Amino acid sequence: MFIGIVLAGLLMVPLAVRDEYYLHLFIVSAIFVVVALGLNLIVGYVGQLSLAHAAFFALGAYVSALLFFKLKWSMWVGMPAAAIVTGCVAFALGWVILRVRGHRFVIITVAFAEIMRLVATNWVDLTRGFMGLPGLQIPALYVPGIGAIDVSSKERFYYVVLAAAVLSFYICYRLVRSPVGRAFVLVRENEVLAESLGLSAFRYCMIAFVVGAALAGAAGALYGHYVGFVSPDLFNFSYITIMLIMVILGGKGTLIGPALGAVVFTFLPELLRDAAQYRMVIFAGILVVATLFMPRGIIFPLVEHLAPRRWRKNHGAA
Amino acid sequence: MFDLAIFGQHLLNGVLIGCAYALIAIGLTMIFGVMNIANFAHGEFYMLGGFAAFYLVSLLKLNYFIALPVAVLLVLALAVAIQQAIFKRLRDAPVMTTTLVTIGLSILLEHVALLLWGPQPQVVPTPFPTRPLSFFGIYTTPLYLFSMAVTAALIVVGHVLIQRTRMGKAMRATFQNREAAALVGVRIDRVYLYAFAFGAALAAAAGAVLGGFIPVEPTMGGIATLKAFVVVILGGMGSFVGAIVGGLLLGLAEALGAGYFSSGWKDAIGFVAVILLLLFRPDGLFKRA
């Protein structure tokens, strides 16, 4: 019932929001919902602080863009391909780095992200370096029996990204509610106990890492095609910062929290446009204060507070 | 054709930049060893040192040689404030918390600097003549030599302080075993404060001295932090001598890599080394098994 109302509301957005600019923010929000849900699997559920997530996002954008320019593959093939490639890269990286924990894990993920940035910048023959890859397009969607549907307008592309956001929410929901999801939480809370029960921490970290990276890759492909331009700027540290803010302030280890966090922290910077030069100062300040004093985040506790008790019992933080 | 003079030139540049890396990394490795925190905001002290020196010299017209220590003292004061306000609360906090807080702090300091001083790079004015000196076909400037002497001297001073003073001994004891150190009367809070302030001051000194030829800008702290992490991991986390050797090694590797291979890829050397080291030799290059 409640889900139906929310979905109906989300479907109505392009009808209610006629302003192109706000519609743009809704589209970007939906893309970042996918990213934040992916990061949340790693940071929130298995409890490993990965700073490579933005690199996976950028990698997905590059994979889809390169397939588009070099092989003329449309986004509908490029996006799944981006998810698969980033998933495979995450698997290879995870194979070596998920054996270490703590500071080492964090530092290796930073080093990986930096290497990816250097590759995007320096492999000029492939990526055109700083010049980036402009001119990406959103192709028409071919539906058997109906034919080609043009989805390149903002109103229509909104439904594409909404579908992606809802689908990834569903994937994450099924995942964290399954025995795998319970294993995630046990690995996060007590790795030794998990291992003693025969649950391989390596394996569950890997599942979260690969699924999270694939979501980031798919979102990166959508983002690249939507803004029409892919460049090494996508590897900037500010991307991972904002992704972490979405997940941490949203409420890590929940699904609603990071999803709402993605929406709030896409809109908030834009609403603070008049104070543009202050906004990163404000956000970074909030990140420091919230990490120290509000480990459960801000948005999820608010939602929980407003929600009826029955919902709270079923949907509390894992 | 192998040219000895060009090789010497790369070596000299490598040693200079290596001394700077070492100076920044010493603070990072100490905070890491003593407090068990990977401080992603460490490079911001380097940036702040550069800006402090720039404004003291160009705006307040302070004598260059007085401005350098004053700049370091200013950053030191800020570091003490940050330690008391934030890092004190991070004792015994999980890795996730400490890292997120230091990342937030890093972004915060960077954007405050951007707000206050703008994005344009600034070079600290120095009294040195800019005419290059030449030894055996190797070119350098008086400022380069001065910077090298200062950074090297500070590294030696730091080493002596850690080895010879009571506080240095307390720091080493805390690094080895915090509970045992506390048990024999070492005041851990004070050790934390001194280690943090000392590390920040060294990074600020690097920023102030190098600001004479490496332009100071708000975004420079981020890359400095990453480079310092590379050095810390090369030398072994928490190892003072390791940070010195690691810094020189990275500086030389980058200078030679840029000279003989590609300047675009030189930054990748350190990061690839970090991944390999953390996997195969997690205690650094020099630790005996």
Quick tags:
heterodimer; A: 318 residues; mainly alpha; two-stranded antiparallel sheet; two-stranded antiparallel ribbon; 4 strands; 75% helix; B: 289 residues; globular
Structure characterization notes:
The complex is a heterodimer of chains A (318) and B (289). With 318 residues, chain A is mainly alpha-helical. Chain A has a domain at 19-235. Helices cover 75% and strands 3% of the residues of chain A. In chain A, the strands form two sheets. Chain A has a two-stranded antiparallel ribbon. In chain A, α11 (237-250) crosses α13. Chain A is globular, with a radius of gyration of 19 Å. The model of chain A has no long low-confidence stretch (mean pLDDT 83). Chain B is mainly alpha-helical and 289 residues long. Chain B has a domain at 22-124 and 137-219. Chain B is built from eleven helices and two strands. In chain B, α1 (4-35) crosses α6 (166-176) and α5 (142-164) crosses α6. Chain B is globular, with a radius of gyration of 19 Å. The model of chain B has no long low-confidence stretch (mean pLDDT 87).
